[in-house]
Amino acid sequence: MSFRSPSAAPLPGVADLIAQHALSAVFQPIVDFDGGAILGYEGLIRGPAGSPLEAPAALFAHAAHEGLSTELEHAAARTCIHAFAKLNCEGKLFLNFSAEAILKLGETRDDTLAWLLRLGVPAERLVVELTEQCAISDIAGFVQMVAAVRETGAQFALDDYGTANASMNLWVRLQPDIVKIDRFFIHEIASDPLKFEAVRAMQHFANSSGARLVAEGIENEADLIVIRDMGIGCGQGYFFGRPDAVPLTRIADEAKQAIRAEHIAVFPGQTRSVAASPSGGMAAAKMLVAAPALPRQAANNDVLDLFNRMPNLHAVAIVENDEPIALLNRRAFMDRYALPYHRELFGKRPCLQFANASPVVIEKSMTVEQMAKLLASDDQRYLADGFVITDGGKYLGLGTGESLVRAVTEVRIEAARYANPLTFLPGNIPISSHIARLLGNHAEFYACYVDLNHFKPFNDQYGYWQGDEVLKFAAVVLADICDPTRDFLGHVGGDDFLILFQSEDWQARAQKAIANFNAGAQRFYADADRAAGGIHGEDRRGNPTFFGFVTMAIGCVRVRPQPDQRNVYSSEMIASAAALAKRRAKHEAAGFFLIDVEEGEALMHMATATPHAVEESEARTVN
C-alpha cells in the first residue's frame, strides 16, 4: 500500500509516534435505551492531526507494513485509558483488540493492573472488544486467555458481529458478555426485512446465551425505534454522537425523545419472499406417494404383477441407476392388456415398449411457484399419468395431478395469510400480530378498515383482470399516505384493507386516500360509462340497478391506552369494531366514519343480541 508520492516527506515510524506520544484518543457514546443514559464510551485512536496518518485505517495499515500492529493496539489502549481517566468520564470504556493483542495483554496482566490502579481506573470499568481483523489459530489457548482477562474484572465483548471472523462459532466458544452487532445489519434495518430477520436471529441467540447486545451504526430515528422495539437494550452511532476528544456527557434531546417515543415501530415484513417464492419442500412432501420402481430390463408381465399386487398404485416408474427414465400409467397399461391375446403377444417384451419415455419430473426442492407454472403449461400429461418426484435427480416416489393442484393451492392459501398474493401487502396473521404489539405496548392508535363501494358490479362488468388493477391501485394509494415507520397497512382480502395509524395527522391522511382514490378510479371505466357516471348492473337480489363509480370508504376506531394498563381488548375485537365502523362509513357522503373502541364494543354486543339492531342504528345515523 502506498501512502505518499515519491516527492512527499517520509512518513514517521509507528514506534516514533508511540514514543513521542503523538497519538490521541476520541470517544463515542454507547447509550442504554432504558432512560437514554450513556452506558459508556468506545475509545478510538487517531494519528497526528492533519497528517496522512490521522485516520485510523491509514495508521493501522502503516503499522501492519512495519510489523508493529500489536504494539500500536496496546499503545492505542493506553492512550485511550489515560485520556479517559484525565477527563474523569463516567461509565465503561470499550477498547478494541485483535486476538494477538489480547494474547499479549494476558502476558502483561499484572503490570497492566498496577498501571490501571495508579490511574484510578479499575479493571471492572473496562470492556475488551475482540475485533474481526484476523482469524484465531489456537482457539483453545485463546479461550483460556479470555478467561484470564475476565478474572481481572474486565468484561469481554465480540465486536462487529456478523462479518468476517466474528462468527457464531466464536460466540459459542468464547461466551462474550457483550456482542456488538455490525453496522451493516443496523443501517436501514427499518426498511430491510432481511436485515431485520438476521438481527432477530442474533437476538434469540443472545437471550439464550445471556449476552447483552449493542447495535452499532444507528444513524436515524426509524432504525433506532425498530431496534428499541425488538428489545435490544443498547446502541451506538452518529444519531447519539460522533467520536470526539471531549465526549458527550448526555445525548441530544432529539435522540432522547426518539428513545422515549410513544409510537411503536412498524417492523419490515417479509411479504415479497413469503408470497412470491415460498419453499416447495413441504408441498412436495404432501404430494409424495411412496411407490416401488422397476428396472428398465423389466418385462410387461412384471408390471402387470406389480399392479395386481398393489391395486391402489396409479403408476410405476422405470429407473436406471436410480434415475427415472420412463413412467407407466396403470389405467392405460391395464386397458391395453385387456385386449385379446395382448398378454400372450407382449407379456415377455420390455416394459419400455408401452411406457412414457419423457415423464413429468418434479424435484423435491422445486418451489411452489415453479409447480404453479407447471400447472399453467401446455404439458398436461401429469393430469392423467401422474409424475415422478426426485431428490437430487434420484427416484424418490410418485405424485398425482390431483395432489399437485391441491398442494399448490394449500401452500398459496397459507402464504396469503401472511401476504396477499396480488398486492404483496401483509395478510391476516401479520395484521393480528401488529395489533397485539400495539395493545401490548399500550400505544394509542387508530384502526381503519378500508372498503371499496360498488366494486363487485365493476368486477362483474369489466372482469377480474381489470378488478385486480383497481385493487392494486387502491393499495398504491393507501401505501402513499402511510408513514411506513408509524403506520401499518395490511390487505385483509378482496377489496378490504386495514390501516393501523400512529401518525398524528392520521385523519388527514385517510381523507387524502379517499380523495385520491375516488378521483383516480374513474380512469378504469370506459369513456361511455365515465360520461354516464357509472354502470348498469344487478343488485344482490338480481334487480336492475345503476351503480356509481367505485369509491373508497374508511371506518375508523380510536384505541386509547387504558388507565390501569390492562389489555382489555383483543386483536379480533379491534378488527371487528373497525369492520362495523366501515359499514357506517359506506353510508356517509364523505366515505369516512370514526368511533371509539368502546362504542364499537357496544355495537358488537348489540349485533350479537339482535342481528338487525346495528342496521337500524345505522339507518338512524344516516337519517
Describe this structure in words.
Strands 1-2-3-4-5-6-7-8 form an 8-stranded mixed barrel, surrounded by 5 helices. Strands 16-17-15-20-21 form a 5-stranded mixed beta sheet, sandwiched between helices. It starts with 13 loop residues before the first helix and ends with a helix. The protein is flat. It folds into 3 domains: 24-261, TIM Barrel (Alpha-Beta Barrel); 281-411, CBS-domain (Roll); 423-622, Reverse transcriptase/Diguanylate cyclase domain (Alpha-Beta Plaits). The chain has 27 helices and 21 strands. The longest helix has 19 residues, at 69-87. Helix 14 (300-309) links the parallel strand 9 and strand 10. By secondary structure, the protein is an alpha/beta fold. Helix 21 packs across helix 22, helix 22 packs antiparallel against helix 23 and helix 25 packs across helix 26.
